[in-house]
Amino acid sequence: MGDLAKIFKAYDVRGVVPDEFDEPIAEAVGAAFVEVTGAGSVVVAHDMRESSVPLAEAFVRGARSRRADVVHAGLGSTDLLYYASGSLGLPGVMFTASHNPARYNGMKMCRAGAVPIGGDTGLSEIRDRAAELVGVTATPVGSLIEKDLLPGYAHHLRTLVDLTGVRPLKVVVDAGNGMGGHTVPAVFDGLPIELVPLYFELDGDFPNHDANPLEPQNLLDVQRAVIDSGADIGLAFDGDADRCWVIDERGASVSPSAVTALVAVRELVKAPGATVIHNLITSHGVPEIVREHGGVPVRTRVGHSFIKAEMARTGAVFGGEHSAHYYFRDFWFADSGLLAAMHVLAALGEQDRALSELVEVYSRYHASGEVNSAVADQGEALRRVREAFAGRGEFDELDGLTVTGSGWWFNLRASNTEPLLRLNAEAADETEMTAIRDEVLAIVGKVSK
């Protein structure tokens, strides 16, 4: 049986099954979740991992033992769970470990209306109460209702982005044996889309590649399939299908910053003058384009809890992250990779240019991508970088260290979970970006392990 302090993270629960996370823990968390949230009813969904069904069933037992009624949606993506929480007005729990390897599982929790539960908004209290309840069994009292929410989810997304009138598109989708293989066919059914499916078979062992589109090697299959099939676009989802990576017709990656800018422009047409959230390592092209289209850009720290909190505070119409998470006001301020993909498909299908031409206007700068360095003394590394760049740009420390010069910027921040420093650099000129990136990495390298 695992240590709850180890598996309860800042925003969710994740651990190796059964060494760190098992059914008695899931049952205890179910009871604690109801006690802490005061929920009279809870909605639950799970991904395709072998351990997800027994863990979800254990959670349901725990929740019902505290007299809560449970709506069990069965298989679903994380954004389907958010849809369930929002449309039903219920707190929700999704069993998934997202892009983590097969031996992992976890839980993402939210209050009614898909409001996230994090360490400072109830997750710590759930952890502490669950620790007291592990091994304590009680008779389920609340009712259990099994409900297929996939049709309602698909209908809702199709009301938010109308694809019925776009030109015919050939679309390669790599579901990575994850939940995109469950949700994409339901959403695309009957639309003018010729679907080229890759790895739609639900398989929590991920036999083809990891369901993590942030790693370039996991995009090779979708890139090859786009070129071989002559497709207009490729889409790659992570395991729980809340993130989506876009590939153009040449097989090249489209930056999540370009996707953020494209979707922001579309949302600002519907909500002129609205706020758009972006984290501080998205391209500087994002706030520029938002302003040019009459919107108000707001910059946040990295992390979905910061994005969601700022969206709720400002009533923002949309938010985007460098990690291919996209958040929508008309989706309960929650993130949906498929909804973002539908916006890109609509933008592509409403005109005749290829995707590479369409997104060129949203790609203004040269970016390094995220470069990680293992560093024993992160504070010393940051101190040396500050010293080296003193007088060369403006400093801010909203999240790590950001230095902004003339036509360039970089951010160096510590990982929340590993002894790593993460560097992102960008410049109008690729040579200058490379020089800035390499200078910072050389300084950091002097205090690396």
From TrEMBL:
GO terms classed as biological process: carbohydrate metabolic process
Residues annotated as transmembrane: none
Keyword presence, Isomerase: yes
Domain (Alpha-D-phosphohexomutase alpha/beta/alpha) ranges: 6-130, 153-251, 262-365
Keywords, in A-Z order: Isomerase, Magnesium, Metal-binding, Phosphoprotein
SUPFAM superfamilies (alphabetical): Phosphoglucomutase, C-terminal domain, Phosphoglucomutase, first 3 domains
Highest rank taxon of the organism: Bacteria
InterPro entries: A-D-PHexomutase_a/b/a-I (IPR005844), A-D-PHexomutase_a/b/a-I/II/III (IPR016055), A-D-PHexomutase_a/b/a-II (IPR005845), A-D-PHexomutase_a/b/a-III (IPR005846), A-D-PHexomutase_C (IPR005843), A-D-PHexomutase_C_sf (IPR036900), Alpha-D-phosphohexomutase_SF (IPR005841)
Alpha-D-phosphohexomutase C-terminal domain ranges (all copies): 370-441
Needed cofactors: Mg(2+)
GO MF entry, a single one: intramolecular phosphotransferase activity
Sequence similarity: Belongs to the phosphohexose mutase family.
Protein name: Phosphomannomutase/phosphoglucomutase
Originating species: Nonomuraea mesophila
